[in-house]
Amino acid sequence: MPHDEQLSGEKSLAIIHQMISQAKANITDSGLPWLLWGTMLILASLSTYFFISTNAENLFLGWNIFGAVTVVLLAYDALKPKRKKVKTYIDELMMLVDIGFFVCIFVIILSINISVTPGNGFGYMLMVFAFQMLIKGGAAKSKALIVGAVVNWAGAIAVFINKEFKYDMLIMAGAVLIGYIIPGFILWAEYKKTNNISGN
What we know:
- This protein is 82% helix and 0% strand.
């Protein structure tokens, strides 16, 4: 009987160790999603600044394209075959964070089309970006993402203070560059180093 208890204890420790290893693997961030979304956000912001400066007819063409590409990418991610794996608490929590993030963005976009000024709307977007980055940065233990969250909050305040919308787009591009792109490169470099991925 004591022998069985010893084996049971060893199995329990092995299971706990496996769960901890799985949790660590699940919160690894390659940085590539931040680079992808950051690049799209910067292009949309700068295109809007350019269209406003040139008195173009469709000021939000860049954001319309961004929205269409986002829908395609989300649909692809939802429909693509996924590897079967045991979902952990961390997996489920991060999935809820992502769902909450996209719902908030949808509501903000809706509000811009109903009653909120575009400038304020994009300020709210930066706030939501920052909140997501803080949670993801904490989960991945990434100081770069947490700093990026602070930068995006500062960008939101700057947008609310600024009164001319076209400069809001420059503020947004700058906040995303520092808050998304730079942490994305840092995370990608760390990910390559950890997983022995060659740069070639």
